[in-house]
Amino acid sequence: MTEQVSYAASPGRVMDIAADIRAGIRSPMDVVQACLDRIADVDAHVNAWVLVDSAGALATAAEMNREANDGMLRGPLHGVPVAIKDICDVAGWPTRCNSRTRADAPLATADAEIVTALRTAGAIIIGKTHTTEFAYYDPSPARNPHNIDHTPGGSSSGSGAAVGAGMVPAAIGTQTVASVNRPAAYCGISAFKPSTRSMATYGIAPLAPLYDTPGVYGWSVADACYVFDAVRPPHGQTGNGLEEQVRVVVINDPFLGEAANEIIAARDDVADRLREAGHEVVEMDSPISLEDLNELQGHTTVYELARVHAGLLEVPENQVGAVLRQAVIDGNEIDDDIYQAERRRIDAMRVALLDVLRPADLVLWPAVPETAPAGLEWTGDRRYIAPWTAIGGPVVSMPSGFGAGDMPIGMLLVGSPGCDRYVSRVAPRLAEALPQAG
Which of 118, 179, 374, 431 has its CA 20 to 30 A from that of 198? Predict the structure, then answer.
């Protein structure tokens, strides 16, 4: 048996990097060079990157060095390197979406809006990371940094792996079903998925447009929230007056019967640590079937992606991943009336759940039923995240220890739709109760 080798490492705290650059302790060039050195050391094993723009990143860093020395900072991410999932446009680079149909994709002529927001905040775009094909389920070449024989998740596989392997302190992913929060859980890092559709998707290849939402990765909860705050839209509720009322709700649902014992034990341990830290923690039975909501979210996603990607059935079959192609076929068989009825059911379930929660409540829930599975042919289990994507609120991934084989366990902290700014304030405080604080 081959000895397991871990390539997991902290890439550094985003807040610390930004503070050091402001104070002149480190320069943007030093930070970028450290990322490039780490990429050179480990990416041959982890395979997170599609493209690394070493020369461009160093040139931008040199410019930011001069600005920082003159006391001119572009924003809270001045000099912080960030990776971009390769379904997002970056001006001057191709967007190939890990699809053979886009092998000859032209260079993007403009940045996606999330990339523009990052640049405005001062981030340095260092390169592009692997994705599953068009952000669905056909795997990418990326591997889990904790054990490269295991999946890093999907679809933002490269982004999660790049941060988890210490190659970049922050990255962008997208979530249509579970594609931000699942790689975070599998790779032992944090992520912030904003309220569904609250972030602009201009310049991002669509999958299912009524769900597609860009999200951010960082090593810790505080890092992910810091990056989100740097790029968030101004319309998110601030949560003024709610911070002292935070309550963590442990939702019980028969769906949890499919989780491994170590996952439930980790959830209970997190709940106990939050209580010991002085936070209010209550248990509550779910007023809706989260298993049913998972099925509805998946079914409506397939309906939408079939309309977006109908043209894939017109290209040679060997040019499209088998899973995506079958989803387009299946989705085309779903009647419009069925889709609309399912959307109404989702809306009713959302209302029923939110009616029993207070605006200040954060739900504690396992990210996945099991840790990252062995093998690279499957991106893992999306079922525990999909319901919360359908509910539509912000979802924070919180590293919560390790299971068998030293593979990471992740929990979710889920807020009410629109309360993103509130959640980004309180989630880091809650995460301080865990051993890997923040």
Answer: 431
